[in-house]
Each structure stands twice: as structure tokens, then as C-alpha cells.
């Protein structure tokens, strides 16, 4: 793995996990990276924390993430099925501390 990359894991609906190598030196959010990997994320608002269509459930590594902003909390609070470990992928800037993070797309059942 390159020095400027981290490993992320996406849990699929069937329970299997896909391992991805993500760059941390391009200023990408988790939402932008997952969209680039062709995951089904709408991101209707373009990453402004206004729509919650990029919601992910953090299965492992929640302690590695930045604190939730008031805007992110307010938007998540509008979802009927939000979980304690749900976050907006647009608000999670990829960084070295996120190495090994495991997420699941919130809407994927």
C-alpha cells in the first residue's frame, strides 16, 4: 500500500466486505471516494450536509472519525431509521487515522 493511501472496507448487503485502497492526499470526502468507486450514493446536495443521501453506518473505527458537526447531527436527526453509528459520508474527510474503517451504505439492506 502506498504511503498516501488507507484501506477502507465496505460491507455489502450480503455481509461480505469489499476492501478498497483510498488516497488521503487528494482532499476527498468518503462520499466522493465511494461515488468514484461506483457505489450507489445519491449525494443529492453535493456534499453540503443538506440531504442525508450519503448516510453510512460505521461498523468499525467510529472512534477514528472527527466529531460530528451540528449541521451533520441535525440532518441525521431527520432520518427515520438513523442508527447511533450513522454518519454522513460527505462530512468525513479521508485521512490517515481512518485506515481500516468499515462502513455500510445506510440504505443497503
TrEMBL record:
Belongs to the adrenodoxin/putidaredoxin family. It comes from the Bacteria. InterPro entries: 2Fe-2S_ferredoxin-like_sf, 2Fe-2S_ferredoxin-type, Adrenodoxin-like, Beta-grasp_dom_sf. One of its GO terms (molecular function) is electron transfer activity. GO terms for biological process: P450-containing electron transport chain. Keywords: 2Fe-2S, Iron, Iron-sulfur, Metal-binding. The keyword Kinase does not apply. Residues 4-109 form the 2Fe-2S ferredoxin-type domain. This is Ferredoxin. PANTHER family: FERREDOXIN-2, MITOCHONDRIAL, FERREDOXIN/ADRENODOXIN. Its cofactor is [2Fe-2S] cluster.
Amino acid at each position: 500500500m502506498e504511503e498516501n493511501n488507507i484501506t477502507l472496507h465496505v460491507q455489502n448487503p450480503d455481509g461480505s466486505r469489499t476492501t478498497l485502497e483510498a488516497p488521503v492526499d487528494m482532499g476527498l470526502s468518503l462520499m466522493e471516494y465511494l461515488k468514484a468507486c461506483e457505489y450507489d450514493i445519491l449525494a443529492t446536495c453535493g456534499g453540503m450536509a443538506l440531504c442525508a443521501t450519503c448516510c453510512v453506518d460505521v461498523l468499525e473505527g467510529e472512534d477514528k472519525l472527527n466529531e460530528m458537526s451540528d449541521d451533520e447531527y441535525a440532518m441525521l436527526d431527520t432520518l427515520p431509521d438513523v442508527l447511533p453509528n450513522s454518519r454522513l459520508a460527505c462530512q468525513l474527510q479521508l485521512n490517515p487515522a481512518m485506515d481500516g474503517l468499515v462502513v455500510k451504505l445506510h440504505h443497503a439492506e
